[in-house]
Amino acid sequence: MVAPKSPVKRMFAALSALDAADGPISRLEAARRLREAAEELEAAQVEAARKAGATWNEIGACYGLTKQGAQQRFRAARNQAKAVTAASTSKNAEPVA
What we know:
Blueprint: H1 7-20, H2 24-51, H3 56-63, H4 67-92
């Protein structure tokens, strides 16, 4: 089974799997997939908010964190997003002859 690419679609699929699960391990697997998709969605929304001009103070307020707390919480996600962007940019670059 191929997982849907959208985090929201993956969350719905995980919820459906959780609902249909008949044992503790299959429920645990569905819960793990749900958490991973939710974390991906959250990180994408933080990036979108930053690109739209939201400050770290505003983002932190959503979580009851300081500016520094928000930056620390989402630092790994920001670094991963930057790495993915850099990798896709280098893949699309034409080789220099």
